[in-house]
Amino acid sequence: MEIDTKGKEMTENQGASMPNAVNPKELKDAKTLFVEDLKPGMRFRSYFIAKSIEVKQDKNGKDYLAAILGDMTGDISAKFWGITDEDKERFSVIQAGSSVKVEAQVQEYNHQNQLVLDKLRLTEIEDNIDMSLLIKAAPEDAKEMYDFIVAKANAMEDEELKKIALTLMERNYDKLQYYPAAAKNHHAERSGLLWHMKRMLMSGEALCGVYTFLNKDLVLTGVIVHDMEKLNEIDAERTGLATGYSKKGQLLGHIVQGVSEMGKLCDELGVSEEKALLLEHMILSHHYQPEFGSPKRPMFPEAEILHYLDIMDARMYDMEEAVQGVEEGGFSERVWTLDNRRIYKPMI
Ligand SMILES: [Fe+2]
Ligand SMILES: [Fe+2]
Questions:
Q1: Which helix (H) or strand (E) holds 281?
Q2: CATH code for residues 6-133
């Protein structure tokens, strides 16, 4: 079965704005082919983003290319069997984050679809790709998520914490609209940082109803500020595609950048030393372990719960992603961010 290429349709879609809440079904009407449309047996040409790509060896010692390809509707694993040294040389220009054109067949393997590639190359300017179609976006509209978070900040009783949260939201309004929360792992999608913040705020509020001794304003402010410096750690395009890490990001990272920015902001806003210190510690300790970037473990309950809110949201995101496209009763591929576990999709 030959399917229309995405590139052909893409020229018709050019200039169209891509709100986050775009319904992929509408694009299907325009005969555009996405990961979620793929069915076993299909043969097609289309465009994707390479999420990862590496040369591996099969049982017989022959080289093959293993890649994860993605678009705005999801990811799919792809194999290019039996590659030669010449192919390897040709493919070496393709890296994680590259946009590619493929010719492929869809096969079912281990209860999930995978692509067997026949042709693969980097996209060219003539392909006229609208990159926003290739990049996954958070499921909710960026402006609505932003407004939700600002409303939570506005509802705070503590005037100093409110001022910190609102100032950071306002100053970062533009970047927050499209920034992913990670270059590769959880929430590496357009507006992923807002999505991460919003769900953590929802969980945080719920848990403050259980552990009523927690200072809710402090927990919620911690959520809002904890990853804000990812906006300056990661380099990202307006499409939401992370292109790498900034110099500051590589040399310092969002935790150290966050602590230093928080100190400056509290000075500027005249926030009390105690609250400045609490927030600096929450940013400092939210990754929990030194090997993950936190030089100190959380030393008060609001900081402890911030870590759990953070890790819970990341894990749930990764698990939901992992079983997308897996049939009930089947297992996902191994997920590096989940300690190489394969995630099972229950038959219930
Ligand atoms: Fe973080
Ligand atoms: Fe986070």
A1: helix 273-285
A2: 2.40.50.140
